[in-house]
Write a structure and sequence with these properties.
Elements: E1 2-4, E2 7-9, H1 21-25, E3 28-36, E4 39-40, H2 43-56, H3 67-81, E5 89-97, E6 110-118, E7 132-141, H4 155-166, E8 171-176, E9 181-184, E10 188-193, E11 196-199, H5 210-220, E12 226-229, H6 234-237, E13 242-247, E14 251-255, E15 257-258, E16 261-262, H7 266-281
Parallel strand pairs: 7-8, 7-15, 11-12
Antiparallel strand pairs: 1-2, 1-6, 3-4, 3-5, 5-6, 8-9, 10-11, 10-13, 13-14, 15-16
C-alpha cells in the first residue's frame, strides 16, 4: 500500500498523472528513512531536514505537517504493508509541488507520498564484502546549497551507477567542478589516515546526510580520532588507510579497493557499533 496525502492506495493504483511536477521538473524532495520495531529512526533529524529543504525550495508547508502527524502517517503506511510491526522497513517519504504551471508553478502547495518496503536487518551491520570504486568524471556535482538537498533530481547518480555497472565497479566517487571528491553515488564519504578522519564540507556540494551528521557527532566525542570537514583531493585516496560510505539505510559501507589501493575496515567496524547505539538509544558513544 502507498500513502498519498493520507489515503492508502494499492501500489499499482494510478493516483499521479503526467502533470506531476516531480516528473516534469524534478520539483520534489524525498527522505529515505529506517523503521524498526515501531520506531521511525532518527525521525527528528529527517523531519527537520525536510522542513528546511522545503523552505529553501519555497514550498508551502501545510499547518498539519507536525512531527507527530507525519510520523503517524508513516506508521500507518508501515502497518498496512506488514503483519509484524517489529519487522524493519525502508521508508521513502516524497514531497512535491502540486500540478500546474510551467517552470513557474500555479501555487506552492504540496502533496506527499509515503512508501515502505521490508528490510532484513534491524541493526546497522557492516557487511564486509568487496566494494571497489572508481572516480566518475563524465559529469560534476555543483558546489552550492541546492546540491546539499535530497531532491529527486539524481541524474548524475543514475548515469554514474550505469557507468559503474558497465565497467565492473561496485560504486563511484563523484567530483565537483573543482575536481575535489564530494561523495559516493549512494552516500557521503569519510576518509581515514592514521588517527585523522576527513569528510568533505557541505560547501563542496555533498548531500547534507543524516548519518553523516550523526558520525560527525560521534567522532567529535571520541578522543582517539581527530575530525576534519575539509576538501578531499583524488590524490589522497591512494594514501588513505580506510574509506567508507554512509547513508540512512545501510549505515556504513566500507570501500575495499580503489585502483591498486586496498583499504582496511577497522575504523568503520568500530564506528558501526557506536552508530547503532546512537540511532537506537539516542545517545552519543562515550569518549574512548
Amino acid at each position: 500500500m502507498v500513502n498519498f496525502n493520507g489515503t492508502l492506495f494499492p501500489e499499482n493504483a494510478f493516483f499521479l498523472n503526467h502533470e506531476n511536477r516531480g516528473l516534469r521538473y524534478g520539483d520534489s524532495l524525498f527522505e529515505a528513512i529506517r523503521y524498526v520495531s515501531g520506531q521511525v529512526l532518527l525521525w527528528e533529524d529527517h523531519y527537520l531536514r525536510l522542513m528546511a529543504s522545503m523552505r529553501i525550495l519555497r514550498m508551502e508547508i501545510p499547518m498539519e505537517f507536525t512531527m507527530e502527524f507525519l510520523e503517524s502517517e508513516i506508521l500507518k503506511t508501515v502497518n498496512a504493508n506488514t503483519s509484524n510491526k517489529n519487522s524493519p522497513a525502508r521508508i521513502r517519504f516524497t514531497v512535491f509541488r502540486n500540478d500546474g504551471g510551467l517552470y513557474l508553478p500555479y501555487s506552492n502547495e504540496i502533496s506527499y507520498v509515503i512508501e515502505s518496503s521490508e528490510l532484513i536487518n534491524p541493526f546497522y551491520i557492516l557487511e564486509e564484502k568487496p566494494i571497489e570504486v572508481e572516480l566518475f568524471k563524465d559529469f560534476y556535482v555543483n558546489t552550492g546549497l541546492l546540491s546539499t538537498l535530497k531532491t529527486n533530481n539524481r541524474l548524475i547518480n543514475v548515469v554514474g551507477s550505469i557507468y559503474a555497472k558497465e565497467n565492473g565497479y561496485d560504486n563511484c566517487l563523484l567530483l565537483n567542478q573543482n575536481k575535489m571528491v564530494v561523495e559516493a553515488l549512494n552516500g557521503n564519504i569519510f576518509l581515514v589516515k592514521g588517527s585523522s578522519i576527513k569528510t568533505p564540507p557541505l560547501s563542496d556540494g555533498c548531500l547534507n546526510g543524516i548519518i553523516r551528521k550523526k558520525l560527525l557527532e560521534i567522532i567529535g566525542n571520541l578522543n582517539s580520532y581527530t575530525l576534519e570537514e575539509v576538501s578531499i583531493s583524488p590524490f589522497e585516496l591512494q594514501k588513505a588507510d580506510e574509506l567508507f560510505i554512509t547513508n540512512s539505510i545501510s549505515g556504513i559501507l566500507s570501500v575495499t579497493k580503489y585502483r591498486k589501493k586496498e583499504y582496511d575496515v577497522k575504523v568503520a567496524r568500530n564506528l558501526v557499533g557506536k552508530l547503532n547505539a546512537t540511532v537506537r538509544l539516542g545517545t552519543i558513544g562515550s569518549s574512548s
